[in-house]
């Protein structure tokens, strides 16, 4: 095994020294070794990939679909995505020039920010939030402006956005993620329209991470791109809707002029996504089977959500309106105070249930826990009874 030449020490990219490794992963790794622990930590569907999708990947391999594709993804997949966006959300994008298939939503996030940001640019990120946005913005030398939304039911209100814009001066972009990881809260069409009214007269770019758009339990998902098509990049993918996290298929859609730059960055980062994964995503986005598979999973998530919601309420937690994704963001019962990390650590060690401390998701998350219900009902039942016992015995 090679030992690094000591003369290289301290000569890595200095900008990365301010970036901490994900404390979610660290916490998860720490508690995973506890014997018999039930984990509600991961944002990952526990379902298998639907059979028709797996077969499409197998066929691609057996049919020698093994050559470079266009960097923005196969034409047939971009057409399926255009159909999906139009069918579900009434969004119109030209598959030839306005859609790029990425390696998961993660690469979509990186390529979008890289396309827009210069060092020093400011990006508004409502919190609590999925931590990757802040990290990527920092990696690019730009400045995350974290806006605590805990006083406004975990949504960025037009007033809060206006106030932030006045306070911060020039801002390059606004990141919105709904339904939200970690809160499960989403925005309805009226809330988005009201936000759009503030954004439209400005030169703000909007990056809308809608990766959980198919997992909305009451009402229908609306996209801010409906109201701001000329300044929005819509990010989505197959990871959550089709339990395809390991296949790594995401996408970005936006105005052609902007997509030219996003696609250029994307092509330099990854060349293109992998062919079998793209083949599997075609029926995911473009067929009735793909749609039905999501609906079946959604029904199971909803039952689990309702069960956990009731169990947590009985134990004295208040839960943020959980209308989407597969997370509950639960406020600790008053007797436990605000130290979510101490609570989560004790719950893991003494109660054998792993959840993520809310403060790991940024300002406004203190005093909360994030629980993922993307796990079996048996696990949830066991977790619920252990949480109830833990709370009662402290
Ligand atoms: C809000 C949000 N965006 C993006 C991602 C990353 O998705 P992918 O696995 O498709 O890269 C996640 C994964 O947990 C997420 O929660």
From TrEMBL:
<comment type="similarity">
    <text>Belongs to the class-I pyridoxal-phosphate-dependent aminotransferase family.</text>
</comment>
<dbReference type="InterPro" id="IPR050596">
    <property type="entry name" value="AspAT/PAT-like"/>
</dbReference>
<keyword id="KW-0032">Aminotransferase</keyword>
<dbReference type="GO" id="GO:0008483">
    <property type="term" value="F:transaminase activity"/>
</dbReference>
<feature type="domain" description="Aminotransferase class I/classII large">
    <location>
        <begin position="36"/>
        <end position="387"/>
    </location>
</feature>
<dbReference type="Pfam" id="PF00155">
    <property type="entry name" value="Aminotran_1_2"/>
</dbReference>
<dbReference type="InterPro" id="IPR015424">
    <property type="entry name" value="PyrdxlP-dep_Trfase"/>
</dbReference>
<keyword id="KW-0663">Pyridoxal phosphate</keyword>
<dbReference type="GO" id="GO:0006520">
    <property type="term" value="P:amino acid metabolic process"/>
</dbReference>
<dbReference type="GO" id="GO:0030170">
    <property type="term" value="F:pyridoxal phosphate binding"/>
</dbReference>
<protein>
    <recommendedName>
        <fullName>Aminotransferase</fullName>
        <ecNumber>2.6.1.-</ecNumber>
    </recommendedName>
</protein>
<dbReference type="InterPro" id="IPR015421">
    <property type="entry name" value="PyrdxlP-dep_Trfase_major"/>
</dbReference>
<dbReference type="InterPro" id="IPR004838">
    <property type="entry name" value="NHTrfase_class1_PyrdxlP-BS"/>
</dbReference>
<keyword id="KW-0808">Transferase</keyword>
<dbReference type="InterPro" id="IPR004839">
    <property type="entry name" value="Aminotransferase_I/II_large"/>
</dbReference>
